[in-house]
Amino acid sequence: MVRGSGVRDIDEVERISIGKVLRTLSESIYQIQPKQSHYECLEVDELWTFVGNKQNKQWLIYAYHRESGEIVAYVWGKRDLATVQRLKAKLKKLGVQYARIASDHWDSFITAFLCCKQVIGKFFTVSIEGNNCRIRHRIRRGFRRSCNFSKKLENHFKAFDLTFFYLNNGFV
Questions:
Q1: How many domains does the chain have?
Q2: How many other C-beta atoms can be found within 10 angstroms of the C-beta atom of residue 147?
Q3: What mean pLDDT is predicted for residues 149-170?
Q4: pLDDT over 70 for what percent of the chain?
Q5: Domain span at residue 31?
Q6: Residue 119: which CATH number?
Q7: Record's superkingdom (predicted)?
Q8: Using one digit for the tens of pLDDT, what is the confidence trace for 63-94?
């Protein structure tokens, strides 16, 4: 899945059942851990995918470190201020400190990270936008126009957990 293969592709190549692939995915416990406790600058952005059909959008909001290429933390939810605040709380819970936040002009980012230094504009989020493209290429479930999509929300989240773990640890 990390290399763009779907469940049926893995089933065919490995000669195992689709149920076995899905069971292995659902039992996986891959979680990312920040590699540092302090980052000079974190870029934050949102990315949408869907489960089942395009009306069932799922928003991924995450923090990215440009120099190391690391996805530091992420949350799933609606595209609103509450989800961005959950990301900020998750960064705090993980013990991550940062000197400044780089984001686009979305009001929720500006409001949630009001207490810290911010740099705002597309110029400062070039790396995270490139990472969005990399994610869409690595995991077909993230691609907007695809026959590969998740039918179950849990499998969708687990596939992204697996991908982020592999990207952060250099396995891909």
A1: 1
A2: 7
A3: 82
A4: 90
A5: 7-168
A6: 3.30.420.10
A7: Bacteria
A8: 999 999 999 999 999 999 999 999 999 999 99
- DSSP H or E segment with residue 4: none
| Cβ proximity of 135 and 142 under 8 Å | yes
Dihedral angle over CA of 162, 165, 168, 169, nearest 10: -110
Residue with tokens 């939810």: 77
**To 10 degrees, the CA torsion angle through 72, 130, 58, 42?**
30
Q: Provide the strand spans (E) within the chain.
A: 38-51, 53-65, 70-77, 97-103, 117-120
Please name the amino acid found at residue 102: A
Q: Is residue 16 part of a domain?
A: yes
Is residue 143 very low, low, confident or very high in pLDDT (cuts 50, 70, 90)? low
Contact call for residues 36 and 63 (beta carbons, < 8 A): no
Q: What is the pLDDT of residues 91-107, one digit of tens each?
A: 999 999 999 999 999 99
The residue whose two tokens read 């470190």 is 65
Q: Which residues contact 115 (CB under 8 A, 6 or more apart)?
A: none
C-alpha triplet 9, 24, 72: angle, nearest 5°: 95
The tokens for 117 are: 């230094």
Q: Residue 2: inside a domain, yes or no?
A: no
Q: Which amino acid is at 81?
A: L
